[in-house]
């Protein structure tokens, strides 16, 4: 039901556009109407990779050009119809995506963007070297329709629209599925996504393959419209830029963004060119560029998001009046100090043996061994730079140990990828929170649930259970961007437990919280332990920790200096020395 | 579009007024107007050649109208419709579509400088059955079986076929011996590639030339040192230097001069008008270019003195490049076709171009005003232009030569 309803707007839009197109008899306006869906689809293909994963590609022309050249050369040399060649182009584009993605996804951020920039430019020279500076599609006077050469320009527009509708629907399906969630998670924080059980490389490769296939399809169609293919016109910088321009203008990471961008920018550029170009040559570029700069400044995320935020603001006063109890209170059973000393008796969930990791000469973790028993809450403490977070990174697979073993349920998992370790039952949160700000709390948590869920429904179910366990059910539909620090901490906790881990690694979950707030979070954590989760927690604030944990492991300079019950550890001279320095040891003794 | 036509009207009124002044006619009757198109780059990096083509077109229209317009149509005046084809293939295609959609009464057009643009433009005009004259010389333009394109210049491969033997003769006459070795430095644009193909596949062997250095670059050229170094170490009898951007030409020539190969130490020849553009003198000294020759499809020559003087006076252009003279000639060719067709109809004009046989051509070198079945002008020749004392002058063929060629002696 929800699905069919959401496909209605694109369908209506397409029908309205088709009706408009059929009403236009001027062949020049018709050409513009054809180019709008072409660039919209190209923008959508870019958006599928860069919009959702946040890995900016400056090189989508590579796929576009491959499609265009495949379609053109296939007709010239093999006399194959474009009706066949465009699907072939899609396959080639997909393969190109895979081939380009595999090495390039090793890079991140700016490095990824710059590497992507190189591909079309390199391919451009290859095509020039091959002697394809100017390629024209052979005119087919005898069988025009079999070769997609229509005398009625409306048909090109309708074909372009069909491709656009298909791409929109495909994007919408992806957006709501595990695929889309995985990509969004990668965009917000690739490390967190990996820790939440998402095989980021696999999803990114799927995204670039699909994106390449779509770009090549529309590139092939574009060759059919333009009839002339030159390396500059399909592999050039301006082509890659076109995808970015329409998507960033319209809105990144939404299906409507590239469509809005294309519908506004392509006709605008043409009208400026037609109306002003021959009187003030070049003025069109100035106005066009200025318009884009203004929009980017006023709506950095694109028109779609700006408009949506404005609409939301207008709706907000009414909504606020409707539900007064805004603040979320974690209605969890209050603290029970007596619930301690569960430890040391249960089954061993996690065993760390002689774990070491060095960065060059720095031994960040040296020879650390400890055991984590079922239902236990283990506190890992130590001064700044003691190697606590590095230890967690070794446990959940962000870092490979130089030496030693991590046994999960008796199996050595050291050196495995984070998503594999997550599947094995380890969840974690981060010192620095990385919520997906534009998503609701529930959607944020769903990302973490996929690791245990076969279907989207199961994932939603697990997510809402997790939200309930941390006491955020009342605000589950609010955007993460509107939450307080405490709510965000709880949400991260929910995301970590949505995947139903047996062991939970909490990295400074109490950091930045006020006194009362910390107590609420502590209560939630204790409840989790009571429900059967084994927990290891890193923390600075000793006070809260002493009440929370069953046992401490104390690290300093990467090595375990002591471990044991809270009351013993806090009186240990080595611990006091590590935290406060030598001269306090004497004071503490008194 | 309304605005555009207003702008055009204003411009045409101005040129019309000038035309009336020239003719010395006080009151002409108001004859019908016949629209012809000029679709050239007027924005982006190819603006300059587009502007120069516009000068040629405006001068042509002015002269035709001043001399009584189209006589077969009761003295109807020509009116120029200028369309900017931008600086990309896509923009050129869009502009062509705009031209055929919004100027339905055009009878013919000319354009579009770069052969890639002409290719895209003629894909549209072919389907709209609008005849287009072009000075672009890619062979591909007239190899597509199109019926509405007419190429006034010799094609790229034909130019090298015609140019190289002439050049060899020139060298032999002037220096007493035939060159034996040749170095070729070229960019990888479509024109250079087509020219080089013809040279390497047939012409070098035919002329007994041995290719000793071949280097290709992708514009823009960032450093010419390695290219020229190779030339210096092999010391060929002839250097073919084929840039298509003024900046590349400048870099190469400066380096040639710096390495002491200039001033005719190694005779240097080009195959495009780039190296003889007025812009060259803004960046290099007349001494650097002295003696350099280029083989081109058209150039202001003997018999065009009055035109060259008018161009200088009116537009401050120091000399007449292919872009001016060919576009000027295109206007006269359109007039010829209109006279023959006897009506302002694009299909009739196209048919007139196809069947035309108007004798020797005045504004294109060699051959006739007659097209073969592909749309190539029959007998289209080349001219050789040589830099002499800071001006590129036509030195070949003899009937068009403004000066005697000199072969740089070692």
Write a concise keyword list for the protein shown above:
heterodimer; A: about 600 residues; alpha/beta; 6-stranded mixed β-sheet; 4-stranded antiparallel β-sheet; 24 helices; 12 strands; about 10% strand; B: about 400 residues; 7-stranded mixed β-sheet; 5-stranded parallel β-sheet; 13 helices; globular; disordered N terminus
Number of strands of chain A: 12
Give me the number of helical elements of chain B: 13
C-alpha termini separation of chain B: 60 Å
- Looking at how many chains there are and whether they match, the oligomeric state comes to heterodimer
Low-confidence stretches of chain B: 1-30
The strand line-up of the biggest sheet of chain B is 7-6-8-9-10-11-12
Order of helices and strands of chain B: HEHEHEHEEHEHEHEHEHHEHHHEE
Our measurement of the CA-to-CA distance between the termini of chain A, rounded to an integer number of angstroms, reads 71 Å
Sheet having the most strands of chain B: 7 strands, mixed
CA gyration radius of chain A, whole angstroms = 29 Å
| Structural class assignment of chain B | alpha/beta
Helix percentage range of chain B: 40-55%
Q: What portion of the residues of chain B fall into strands of 2 or more residues?
A: 15-25%
Secondary-structure-based class of chain A equals: alpha/beta
Mean pLDDT of chain A: 86
Estimate the strand proportion of chain A.
5-15%
Overall body shape of chain B: globular
Could you give the topology of this structure?
The complex is a heterodimer of chains A (590) and B (410).
Chain A: H1 2-23, H2 27-53, H3 61-78, H4 82-104, H5 109-129, E1 135-136, H6 154-176, H7 178-188, H8 190-195, H9 200-226, E2 228-229, H10 231-235, H11 237-250, H12 256-276, H13 283-298, H14 303-322, E3 348-359, E4 362-373, E5 377-381, H15 388-396, E6 403-408, E7 411-412, H16 418-423, E8 426-428, H17 441-449, H18 456-469, H19 485-498, E9 503-507, H20 515-530, E10 534-538, H21 542-548, E11 551-556, E12 559-564, H22 566-569, H23 573-580, H24 583-589
Parallel strand pairs in A: 5-10, 5-11, 8-9, 9-10
Antiparallel strand pairs in A: 1-2, 3-4, 3-6, 6-7, 11-12
Helix pairs in contact in A: 1-6, 2-6, 2-7, 2-9, 2-11, 2-12, 3-4, 3-5, 3-9, 4-9, 6-7, 6-9, 7-9, 7-17, 11-12, 12-13, 17-18, 17-19, 18-19, 23-24
Chain B: H1 2-23, E1 33-40, H2 47-66, E2 77-84, H3 89-102, E3 106-111, H4 115-128, E4 132-134, E5 149-151, H5 156-175, E6 181-187, H6 190-206, E7 210-217, H7 225-234, E8 238-242, H8 246-258, E9 268-270, H9 280-283, H10 286-289, E10 293-296, H11 305-315, H12 322-341, H13 346-355, E11 383-388, E12 391-396
Parallel strand pairs in B: 1-2, 1-3, 3-4, 4-5, 6-7, 6-8, 8-9, 9-10
Antiparallel strand pairs in B: 10-11, 11-12
């Amino acid at each position: 039901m929800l699905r069919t309803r959401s496909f209605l707007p694109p369908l209506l839009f397409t029908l309205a556009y088709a009706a408009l197109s059929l009403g236009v008899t001027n062949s020049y306006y018709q050409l513009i109407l054809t180019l709008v869906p072409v660039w919209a689809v190209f923008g959508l293909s870019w958006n599928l990779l860069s919009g959702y994963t946040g890995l900016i590609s400056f090189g989508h022309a590579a796929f576009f050009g491959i499609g265009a050249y495949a379609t053109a050369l296939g007709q010239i040399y093999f006399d194959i119809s474009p009706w066949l060649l465009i699907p072939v182009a899609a396959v080639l584009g997909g393969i190109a995506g895979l081939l380009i993605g595999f090495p390039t996804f090793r890079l991140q951020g700016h490095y990824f963007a710059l590497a992507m920039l190189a591909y079309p430019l390199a391919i451009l020279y290859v095509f020039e070297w091959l002697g394809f500076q100017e390629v024209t599609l052979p005119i087919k006077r005898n069988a025009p329709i079999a070769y997609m050469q229509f005398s009625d320009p409306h048909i090109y527009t309708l074909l372009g629209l069909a491709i656009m509708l298909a791409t929109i629907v495909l994007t919408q399906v992806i957006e709501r599925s595990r695929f889309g969630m995985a990509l969004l998670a990668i965009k917000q924080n690739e490390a967190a996504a990996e820790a939440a059980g998402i095989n980021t490389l696999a999803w990114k490769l799927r995204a670039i393959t699909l994106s390449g296939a779509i770009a090549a399809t529309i590139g092939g169609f574009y060759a059919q419209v333009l009839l002339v293919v030159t390396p500059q016109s399909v592999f050039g910088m301006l082509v890659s830029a076109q995808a970015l321009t329409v998507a960033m203008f319209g809105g990144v990471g939404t299906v409507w963004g590239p469509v809005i961008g294309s519908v506004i920018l392509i006709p605008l550029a043409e009208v400026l060119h037609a109306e002003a170009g021959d009187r003030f040559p070049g003025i069109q570029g100035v106005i066009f560029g200025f318009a884009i700069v203004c929009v980017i400044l006023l709506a950095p995320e694109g028109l779609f998001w700006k408009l949506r935020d404005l609409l939301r603001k207008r709706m907000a006063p009414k909504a606020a009046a409707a539900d007064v109890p805004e603040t979320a209170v974690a209605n969890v059973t209050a603290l029970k100090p007596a619930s301690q000393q569960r430890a040391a008796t249960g089954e061993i969930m996690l065993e760390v043996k002689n774990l070491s990791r060095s960065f060059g000469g720095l031994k960040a973790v040296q020879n650390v061994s400890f055991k984590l028993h079922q239902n236990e809450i283990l506190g890992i403490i130590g001064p700044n730079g003691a190697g606590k977070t590095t230890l967690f990174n070794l446990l959940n697979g962000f870092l490979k140990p130089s030496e030693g073993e991590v046994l999960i349920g008796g199996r050595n998992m050291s050196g495995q990828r984070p998503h594999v370790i997550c599947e094995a039952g380890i969840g974690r949160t981060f010192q620095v929170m990385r919520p997906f700000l534009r998503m609701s709390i529930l959607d944020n948590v769903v990302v973490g649930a996929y690791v245990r869920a076969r279907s989207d429904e199961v994932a939603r179910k697990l997510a809402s259970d997790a939200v309930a366990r941390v006491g955020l059910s009342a605000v589950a539909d609010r955007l993460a961007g509107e939450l307080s620090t405490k709510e965000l901490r709880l949400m991260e906790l929910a995301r970590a437990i949505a995947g139903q881990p047996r062991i939970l690694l909490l990295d400074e979950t109490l950091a930045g919280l006020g006194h009362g707030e910390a107590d609420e979070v502590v209560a939630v954590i204790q409840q989790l332990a009571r429900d059967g989760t084994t927990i290891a927690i890193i923390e600075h604030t000793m006070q809260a920790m002493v009440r929370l944990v069953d046992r401490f492991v104390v690290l300093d300079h990467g090595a375990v200096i002591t471990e044991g019950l809270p009351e013993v550890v806090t009186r240990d001279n080595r611990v006091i020395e590590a935290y406060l320095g030598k001269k306090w040891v004497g004071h503490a003794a008194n | 579009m309304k605005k555009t036509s207003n702008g055009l009207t204003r411009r045409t009124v101005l040129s019309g007024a000038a035309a009336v002044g020239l003719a010395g006619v006080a009151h002409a009757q108001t004859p019908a107007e016949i629209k012809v198109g000029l679709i050239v780059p007027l924005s982006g990096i190819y603006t300059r050649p587009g502007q120069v083509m516009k000068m040629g077109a405006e001068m042509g229209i002015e002269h035709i109208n001043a001399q009584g317009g189209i006589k077969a149509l009761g003295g109807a005046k020509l009116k120029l419709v200028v369309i900017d084809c931008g600086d990309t293939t896509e923009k050129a295609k869009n502009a062509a579509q705009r031209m055929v959609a919004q100027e339905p009464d055009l009878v013919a057009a000319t354009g579009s400088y770069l052969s890639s643009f002409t290719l895209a433009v003629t894909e549209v005009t072919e389907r709209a059955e609008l005849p287009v004259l072009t000075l672009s010389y890619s062979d591909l333009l007239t190899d597509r079986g199109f019926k509405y394109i007419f190429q006034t210049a010799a094609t790229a491969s034909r130019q090298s076929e015609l140019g190289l033997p002439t050049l060899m003769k020139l060298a032999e006459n002037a220096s007493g011996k035939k060159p034996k070795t040749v170095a070729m430095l070229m960019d990888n644009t479509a024109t250079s590639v087509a020219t080089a193909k013809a040279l390497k596949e047939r012409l070098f062997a035919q002329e007994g030339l041995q290719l000793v250095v071949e280097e290709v670059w992708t514009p823009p050229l960032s450093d010419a040192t390695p290219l020229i170094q190779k030339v210096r170490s092999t010391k060929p009898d002839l250097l073919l230097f084929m840039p298509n951007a003024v900046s590349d030409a400048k870099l190469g020539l400066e380096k040639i001069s710096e390495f002491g190969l200039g001033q005719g130490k190694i005779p240097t020849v080009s195959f495009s008008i780039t190296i003889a553009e007025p812009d060259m003198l803004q960046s290099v000294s007349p001494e650097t270019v002295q003696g350099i020759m280029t083989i081109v499809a058209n150039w202001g020559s003997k018999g065009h003195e009055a035109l060259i003087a008018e161009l200088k006076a009116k537009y401050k252009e120091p000399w007449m490049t292919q872009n001016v003279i060919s576009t000027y000639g295109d206007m006269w060719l359109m007039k010829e076709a209109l006279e023959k067709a006897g009506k302002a109809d694009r299909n009739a004009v196209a048919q007139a171009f196809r069947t035309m046989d108007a004798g020797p051509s005045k504004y294109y070198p060699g051959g006739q005003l007659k097209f073969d079945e592909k749309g190539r002008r029959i007998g289209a020749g080349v001219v050789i232009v040589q830099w002499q004392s800071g001006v590129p002058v036509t030195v070949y063929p003899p009937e068009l030569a403004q000066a005697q060629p000199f072969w740089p002696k070692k």
